[in-house]
Specification:
The structure is a single chain. The protein is about 30% helix and about 15% strand. The chain is of the alpha+beta class and about 110 residues long. It has a domain at about 1-60. It has a 3-stranded antiparallel beta sheet with strand order 2-1-3, covered by helices on one side.
Length: about 110
């Protein structure tokens, strides 16, 4: 199964990782994610993320709430949370993926 990062290319507020064989299937799955639920099929961007293929667990979408998925998404997909780092420093440090988080490294560890 192939991993795809799906999002809104214009607003790029949030993204998800879905697993599908084709870009079209990924875009259909994206419509059931929080990141793309209100979007038209033609407006969704789906980018292959082969480095995340190995994390397929039989579920159509990776979960930010699953520690292993979060670590993989941060480490191999470049994901990060959208909270204000300077306000929530302790939460960043408690995140299971903070050691791979570029945003944490650049904004908290400065």
């Amino acid at each position: 199964m192939k991993a795809w990062i799906v999002d809104d290319p214009i607003e790029a507020v949030s993204a998800a990782v879905v697993f599908a064989e084709t870009r079209g299937q990924a875009k259909v799955l994206a419509q059931s994610t929080d990141a793309c639920e209100d979007m038209d099929f033609t407006d969704i961007r789906a980018i292959r993320a082969p480095e995340l293929d190995r994390f397929y667990k039989g579920r159509p979408e990776m979960s930010w709430l699953d520690d292993d998925d979060r670590i993989a998404m941060v480490k191999y997909g470049g994901f990060y949370c959208n909270m204000e780092v300077d306000v929530y420093k302790e939460k960043c440090e408690a995140c299971p993926a903070h050691e791979w988080c570029e945003r944490y490294e650049n904004e908290v560890m400065e």
